[in-house]
């Protein structure tokens, strides 16, 4: 603006010069004064023009310095900002390879930061030069920029030092983790060797020795549990496996519902299964630890199974099938079930027979207290034909020997023995006659009628009319020496006369053993109707016989041997009047 005004004045100066020259040509008195004034004006004009040109040059030089200073400061600040972003907000990787690459990048950043120190010196020198010749209003701004650049450089340098320290700490931690992992690998290797040596030892034959081995292995498992936190700490940097969630199909859901009723073995979680290590050393650590854990679990299960087998063998040494059978029958009764129901629940294909394995698995899966050794022995007893299968008749006959359909001959012998035993208690002078006509068919007394005899619920029963009555009750009503309350003189003359002192008994044809299982003292009497209670006596009288147990009758009856002589008076005294 000043130069424009100065340019406008240049025309006036030229016009003034021409006027003064024209006036000096005419000789006037003021010409000399005008010439002096004009020379002074030209000198001052030239001085002003030179000063304007000089000021223009100085302003242009100052502008160049200012632009250079501004460019240095802004480029310096931009590089510091980028370096600060990397140093302050950069994430230090945890993996060793990435950390080494990051350390190399940090060294390059430090080298670039050192090169920025030269630019900072240039900025400071240029600022001092500008401060030496600048306008007073610019001093504060220049000093502020010089201070800001110095402060920013110091901050970035501090961040670089801190990041270098963090990298150093991370490298030291990685080195320590390497040493820790190596130490854990050495411990796992020694533990695996000790397990292998223990596995090579002979199996113990007593429960005490095996229990001692179990306790030693329990101590080993406790040591492994104590080492587990160290293993987890060493593998904390490992990534977790991504498990996709798949929706099951309807078919799989139905299969899952069907299998839900089956008892599946408990699933033991594998340690560190969710980890996905990437470092070779950590991969080795995880695999070795899982292998050691699997070996320890297998050994523990083997020792426990061996201990259980030893205990089963000790219990099996005193195994008694009759005791087992009674316990199993009681257990079935407690469940309010029948033997047929149990057999049907085992026989799923309903073919009338079950395999030994099906029977053993069913009983072991139930809550009945037994073991595999006992069940093997029981299955051998149930399998009558040794063909590997158990049919319903073999199942029932093993649980209830008295219901065995293949033991009819033995039942006939037992019936004969029991009939002989009870008839032998007759005290009449003339022994009560009993004759066996065929299997399970007898003729009692003087009657020519054949009566069927069978065993029903451990009680010997005689067929009378359309029903059954117990043998002891039948003898009470038909054997004269057991009759109570009769006063018929014909009975005394017929059965108590001295002439009838000859005895004739029933001989046992096939067996001499007693029938304690079918003793009438422990058997309940069968129900009888009023018609069955009304029986004719030998004298033709009708009387009502109350039901009584054989135990009550046995307490009142008196037995004599076959060789004793019984007088009529003695027999008359025994019979009530």
From TrEMBL:
It comes from the Eukaryota. Residues 410-482 form the GAR domain. It comes from Ataeniobius toweri. The keyword Calcium applies. CDD domains: EFh, SPEC. It is found in: Cytoplasm, Cytoskeleton. Its main location: cytoplasm. Gene3D superfamilies: 1.20.58.60, EF-hand, Gas2-like domain. The keyword Nucleus does not apply. This is Microtubule actin crosslinking factor 1b. Residues 334-369 form the EF-hand domain. Keywords: Calcium, Cytoplasm, Cytoskeleton, Metal-binding.
